[in-house]
């Protein structure tokens, strides 16, 4: 099968799968990660096919949408085998998405440029204007407030602890979004990250002004 045909079939598979999802992991998150991954891959001279395919499939193995992460990986492996993706590319894509789905504390580092590109693309979609939009959408869906005055920025905590604490959308900036810039791998990803980071910093500044009725 031609690479374009494999990409097209992956798009269809993923789009059908996420049709029902409204948690911020909808098809349009994947769409944006793919577009970002292609942009960064061109700049970083990474393999475009591997980046595009891994970006398309990056959330398909996530434990949120599968019984276990291992079963999620197996599902993607079966799909790649069914499409007869070349072994080298199949293994590379699987390595990237299993590293990205890994949830046991600190993510293991990405070893290839393609992995670094796709991971940057996923992280960039969590910051900037889109990061802000996704954060407020997530908070609203979970019944969390937009802001709690006096609430102190918290160290990153587990999802379970967070759910119990019901802290605000604004707090999520301090526990995650403002830290992501430092985790970007590639030079071009870092450049994009600087801009998106600054946009969030400015947003917060304006947010506090407006919250306090200032100009
Ligand atoms: P990912 O695996 O992409 O980090 P998550 O499910 O953790 O995905 O988050 C999906 C989106 O919701 C991201 O944009 C993330 O920043 C946001 N989000 C995650 N947890 C929270 C939270 N506790 N409060 C507000 N937004 C959140
Ligand atoms: Ni993602």
Automatic annotation (TrEMBL):
This chain belongs to the protein called: HD domain-containing protein
Boundaries of each HD domain copy? Answer: 26-127
Top-level taxonomic group: Bacteria
Pfam (any one): HD
Output the PROSITE patterns linked to this UniProt entry.
HD (PS51831)
């Amino acid at each position: 099968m031609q690479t374009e045909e494999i990409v097209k079939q992956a798009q269809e598979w993923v789009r059908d799968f996420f049709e029902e999802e409204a948690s911020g992991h909808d098809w349009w998150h994947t769409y944006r990660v793919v577009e970002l991954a292609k942009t960064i891959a061109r700049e970083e001279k990474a393999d475009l096919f591997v980046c595009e395919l891994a970006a398309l499939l990056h959330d398909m193995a996530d434990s949120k949408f599968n019984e276990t992460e291992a079963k999620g990986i197996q599902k993607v492996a079966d799909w790649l085998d069914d499409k007869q993706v070349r072994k080298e590319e199949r293994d590379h894509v699987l390595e990237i998405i299993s590293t990205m789905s890994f949830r046991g504390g600190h993510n293991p580092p990405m070893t290839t440029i393609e992995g670094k590109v796709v991971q940057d693309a996923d992280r960039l979609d969590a910051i900037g204007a889109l990061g802000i939009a996704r954060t407020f959408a997530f908070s609203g869906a979970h019944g969390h407030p937009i802001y709690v005055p006096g609430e102190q920025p918290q160290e990153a905590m587990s999802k379970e602890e967070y759910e119990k604490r019901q802290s605000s959308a604004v707090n999520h900036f301090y526990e995650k979004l403002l830290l992501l810039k430092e985790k970007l791998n590639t030079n071009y990803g870092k450049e994009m990250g600087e801009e998106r980071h600054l946009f969030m910093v400015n947003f917060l500044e304006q947010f506090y002004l407006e919250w306090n009725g200032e100009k």
